[in-house]
Amino acid sequence: MNLGPRLSPGVTQRLALAPRQSEALRLLAMPAAELTQMLESALEQNAMLDRAEAESGDIESLDSGADSIDGAEAWEDLDWSSAPAGNAAPDRENYPEPVPDLRQHLCDQLELERFSARDYAIALTLVDALDPDGYLRETVTTVAEELQALEPPPTEVEVEAILQRVQRLDPVGIGARTPSECLLLQLDILPDETAGLDTARCLLNEHFEQLARAGIEVLARRAGADIDTTRAALALIHELNPRPGADFTAPSTEYLIPELRVRRTGECWQVEFCPGTRPHIFINETYAAWLGSHRDSEGADMLSQQLEEARWLLRSLAQRENTLLRVARVLVRHQSGFLDHGPLHLAPLTLREVAAELEMHESTVSRAVQGKSIATPRGVFTLRHLFSTALSNNNEETLSAHAVREHLRHMLTREDPTAPLSDAALAAALAREGMPIARRTVTKYREALGFASTRERKRPAHSTEPRKGERHAKHDHRSSSGNHSGPEGLRQYQTGSS
Question: Please, what is the Cα angle at 44 between 38 and 49, to 5 degrees?
């Protein structure tokens, strides 16, 4: 029996996208910035395309006769003074200073040190091996192996000696290999008479793993110190910075460029395209007329091909705008409660529901909302923000998962810090408001919002320090490069997360 490969004729059916169909889908998924870049490139490469200097409001937004959506006030009558201060145009005099680069900051200091050419090469290699938090994640052996080109090749002892000099640079704690070493380096610069200094060194050297979990009595017993001295040592450790390089890492900023806007006209919400979000292009009629009367001229074939490509691009753009506008109108119609009353009234809505209403494929709706933003009186949001999964309650009603999270956020930010609510108590409170969800769901949402556990949120009376997790919740997870000092920061490093 022959089991080898062989060819046999057959007929099969399969779906395949034409190149232009694939390109049209790619256009649909493009966000505004990427689309603008693509159109600028097309204007440079295609002589049949030209740019129109569109005036304000002179954009073919395909929204003549826009769908009417229930509303109440006119766009011009909106009270913009109640908008968050962060939405206002920033004062140029108050622009933040640029964040210095950690490597350049260290290299500037190396220039001032009395390093020989050989020692400078070793120190520079060590600086290049630091991670954004300022830690040396490579071993001394690995660094020595990378410097085999030096004559003679450096030994591990030599690299270790240079590392100790690098660790004396600013910021203090740079070049450490572990969090405990980082904190110990910071303790080394303190005066010997500092209260709790010896106990703090003992805790970091011998009991670092228990710092974030054990009680003060246990730590005092293990360090052989009294309660007051241990408390002073913990306060000292709490002031240290386990991420000395984080101050030199600029937080990533994501800018939303709204391609659509929603506004009130009479008693209706109206969706339209924002003017000026992309170049307004058209076919150069002068070149097109010349081509019509000079078909046999040199270069006519190239211009004819460019004319066909230009017409296809304009048709694809019109189809993209039509699809995007239809999807946005459905989203705004379903989420009018959100626009009227805020995030607590965001209704459950899925891609499948929008696709069924528009008689589109679900993947088309997904491409249409991908990377797109809309400007509303409540701020600029991604279109994805207007979707929310549904949760069912005991009355067979559907709840928006986003609305539940917002209710939970309000409860957590307004709770008594001296007696924070447990997840079970939060679940019971939500149930009383008509949002019965499981305790484990409350735990998942609480952690997603950036709030710590009940025990970690609790703080003594008259304390002015923010609760653990409260700072991250207020910043909505957008500033993850800041310092995490104290037991919470230690716990993150002990568990291997940053």
Answer: 90
* Chain centre distance of CA 129: 26
Structure tokens at 351: 């891609």
The distance from CA 194 to its chain's CA centroid, rounded to whole angstroms, is: 41
Would you state the pLDDT for residue 263?
87
Find which of 331-335, 398-402, 419-423, 483-487 is predicted with most confidence, using mean pLDDT.
Answer: 331-335
Q: Give a yes or no: residue 83 inside a domain.
A: no
- In this predicted structure, the answer to whether residue 388 has a pLDDT above a threshold of 50 is yes
Separation of alpha carbons 13 and 216, rounded Å: 72
Is the domain of 378 the same as that of 397? Answer: no
Q: Same domain for 33 and 145?
A: no
Whether residue 145 is found in the same domain as residue 223: yes
Q: What is the pLDDT of residue 18?
A: 56
Task: With beta carbons less than 8 A apart as the criterion, state whether 158 and 122 touch.
Answer: yes
Q: Residues 330, 369: contact at Cβ < 8 Å?
A: no
Please report where in the chains the tokens 């991670």 appear, as a residue: 131
Which spans in 177-299 are helix H? 179-187, 197-206, 216-223, 227-238, 285-293
> Quick one: average pLDDT of 12-32?
69
Spatial contact of 227 and 196, defined as CB atoms under 8 Å apart: no
| Residue 453: CATH number of its domain | 1.10.10.60
Query: What range does the domain containing 242 cover?
Result: 102-248
Cα separation, 247 vs 271, in Å, equals: 42
Mean per-residue pLDDT, 478-487 = 40
- Domain assignment present for 3: no
Shared-domain flag, residues 38 and 107: no
Of 186, 214, 248, the one marking the end of a domain is 248
- Position 50, amino acid: D
Structural domains in the chain (count): 3
Same domain for 300 and 427, yes or no, is no
- What separation in angstroms does the CA of 107 have from each of 95, 101, 115? 27, 10, 12
pLDDT tens column, 125-175: 898 888 888 898 888 888 888 888 788 888 999 999 999 999 998 888 999
Name the strand (E) or helix (H) holding 325: helix 300-334
Of 161, 158, 106, 162, residue with least CA distance to 134: 106
d(CA 274, CA 57): 8
- Residue 414: predicted pLDDT: 83
